[in-house]
Amino acid sequence: MKRLALTLLATMALPGIAHAQATDTASADVGVAGSVAKLCMLGTPTPAPVDLGQMANTSGTRVGKIAAISDRTVTLPGSFCNFAGSAITVTATALVADDASPVEPGFAKAVNYTAAVTNWAPGPAAVTTNATAAGGSPTNSATGPTQPAPKVADLDVTLSNFTAPSDNLLTAGAYSGLVVVKLGPVASGGD
Amino acid sequence: MSRNLKRLAGLSAAAIAIAWSGTAAAQEGGGGSDTDTKNFAVVGNVPAMCVGGTLAGTGATFDMGVLIDVNTGLLRNDLAAPPKILSGSFCSARSTITVAATPMAAQTFTATPPAGFSRTVNYTATAAGWTETPASYVTGAGSNPAAVQTRGTAFSGDITVSVGSFSTGGGATQRLVADTNYQGNVTVTLAVAS
Predict the structure, then answer these.
(1) Domain ranges in chain B?
(2) Residue in B153, B51, B54 with CA at minimum distance from that of residue A56
(3) For the complex shown, is ipTM > 0.90?
(4) Are the CB atoms for B144 and B86 separated by under 8 Å?
């Protein structure tokens, strides 16, 4: 066993000696490469959902018609894109009565509004819904200006300008709508 | 010894396999992309309500004039008055319309009239335009099943209130006692139906 060990050591040592004899200094460059993917993230909408409460006047000259509803703001904190050339697309669906029955003459079962996303590009991404009295065609979409640099910001979505189609009387019931905010590269910002 | 090594190798292979599948899952479920979307709901409600509207035109009184045929002392058989229009009425949900009325009664002569005389005039009050079958109420009748009518949908429109089919309380042979003021009342009620 001892003889075998000595033989092995000698064999291993020989190549090492030969290498040291070629030069006493060696250097080489080793590249370090990586990549960062394009990334956009939106913060969690807060507060959400938005509850407008009771939307019709119950007295006065406009009894039964839409009341003055104050603006509501929802924040998407810490939203960012790590590349230049991004844009916001906002898609809004009017509030429509959940009741599926047809609307009666003089009545509406939809409430339209404007949704505007600010604090991303030089101008807002804003869209106004245009549902019919019967609640048809409730969804509209718009893309805002391009943000030319990587950016991180708290986005504000302001809901305003609440109106009923033709200012008709509002049908009783529960109403619901939806706001979708999309942040992405300009090329795919609109849809 | 050899068996133990094989077992170790087997465990390592299993661990690697688990690690790979973990990485794949993380990439699919939690990875970001160049586009992100968030949404939130917007909700509200409109309460069920009814508004009775206002009487248009010549005030709130059906003026029937002189009630009797002065030649006989009996109730005239040609009593009539233009209908009243309740305009601006609406209900934002399923509703009922109810009409109720009180007989026209002598307001000064309030005692029990002598035999052969009466101090009341009955009539039918009708509220039309809200429901397919108008709501109607006959004063002096034992029951008025047609007084309440239901509409299954929201509605906005005029209600036409009319009076007719006059008759003397106690029978057609009764004569009305003299009084400068016979008065009754018609009430139309709109209500949200449950």
Answers:
(1) 50-192
(2) B51
(3) no
(4) no
CB contact residues (below 8 A), chain A span 56-85, against chain B: 56, 58, 63-64, 69, 72, 74, 76, 79, 81, 83
Q: Which value, to the nearest 10 degrees, does the dihedral of the CA atoms of residues B7, B13, B16, B20 take? A: -140
The 8-class DSSP code of residue A135 comes to S
Residue with tokens 């006959």: B138
The minimum CA-CA distance between A105 and chain B, rounded to whole Å, is 7
Give just the sign of the alpha carbon dihedral A99, A100, A101, A102: positive
- Structure-token pair, residue A160: 């305003």
Summarised one tens digit per residue, pLDDT across range B38-50 is 999 999 999 999 9
**Which parts of A63-168 are beta strand (E)?**
72-81, 86-97, 107-108, 110-118, 125-128, 139-143, 151-163
The sign of the dihedral angle between the CA atoms of A144, A149, A155, A158 is: negative
For A156-179, write each residue's pLDDT tens digit.
999 999 999 999 999 999 999 999
Torsion, Cα of B174, B175, B181, B184 (10° steps): 20
Helix (H, G, I), strand (E, B) or coil at A149: coil
The pTM score is 0.77
